[in-house]
Design a protein that fits this description.
This protein is mainly alpha-helical and 267 residues long. The protein has one domain. The protein contains eight helices and two strands, in the order βααααααααβ. α3 packs across α5 and α6 packs antiparallel against α7. The longest helix has 39 residues.
Length: 267
């Protein structure tokens, strides 16, 4: 059963938390800039390759580029970091629930991006062809995922998430896999000159010994990984979340009563 509890929320954060939030806000902006730079450099390498090869269907090539989960999750991470920095600079004592859910979703996607790349895809071409600087892969598959996890664990203002949000978090990966599998047989791969296009080898039945059975296996494995990480993210949201921040602020101000209410979903 889900209950909602109203608890005290002071209007402003303590000076120490305010300073920490500002410092972390600067780091968020820097990380967002690095992600955007890595994405632009990766796209540039692909675009140069497309031009050199004389590919004519640039619309499909661009759709393919942005259909990679790596690209989508990193761009979403950059947006979340910029919004989070704005909240930090604005002195908000807590994030709105919609942003906490969005952050929890993105940190899940980025964590999986890092794990899957480093276990299954490292050394393989995972974008639209062409060369890009090696640092781009490290930013998008190592540095950014680690930063997003630390951002989730360390920054103040995060609210507690109810367990039902796990289903919201994993809904996007489910839609992405469905889209990729349905679209794959319909798209001609100009780079490899084959009649299908899949963003990653584990989704391509031609790359699996058992065809679609092998694809099904990997989809189930990765779906389980997403679910486990989403559960861990929700669980982590309950450590040092908004309730502890409110207790600290109330103690600092000598106020032990609830004056303003913040609704925190709990199960």
């Amino acid at each position: 059963m889900t209950t909602e509890t109203a608890i005290a929320a002071p209007a402003t954060a303590t000076p120490a938390r305010r300073r920490f939030a500002i410092v972390w806000g600067v780091l968020r902006i820097a990380m967002a800039g690095a992600i955007i730079a890595a994405t632009v450099e990766t796209y540039r390498g692909s675009a140069v390759f497309w031009a050199e090869q004389g590919f004519t269907d640039l619309v499909t090539l661009n759709v393919n580029f942005f259909a990679y989960f790596t690209i989508e999750s990193n761009l979403a991470a950059a947006v979340v970091l910029v919004i989070g920095a704005a909240f930090a600079f604005g002195g908000r004592p807590s994030d709105p629930m919609w942003f906490t859910v969005l952050r929890g979703s993105v940190v899940t996607y980025m964590a999986i991006t890092g794990v899957v790349y480093n276990l299954l895809l490292r050394g393989l071409a995972v974008t639209g062809g062409g060369d890009s600087s090696p640092w781009t892969n490290e930013v998008m598959h190592m540095i950014a995922p680690i930063f997003l996890v630390l951002d989730w664990l360390l920054t103040p203002g995060r609210l507690e998430l109810a367990w039902r949000w796990v289903w919201v978090i994993i809904s996007f990966p489910i839609l992405w896999v469905t889209f990729s599998l349905v679209r794959g047989p319909l798209v001609f791969d100009q780079v490899k000159q084959v009649s299908t296009w899949y963003p990653y080898p584990f989704l391509n039945p031609a790359r699996q010994d058992n065809g679609f059975l092998g694809v099904t296996f990997w989809v189930l494995v990765i779906a389980a990984a997403f679910t486990v990480v989403a559960i861990l993210v929700v669980r982590a949201s309950r450590f040092g979340a908004r309730r502890n921040e409110i207790r600290e602020l109330a103690a600092t101000q000598g106020d032990t009563r609830a004056d303003a209410s913040v609704r925190i979903d709990r199960e």
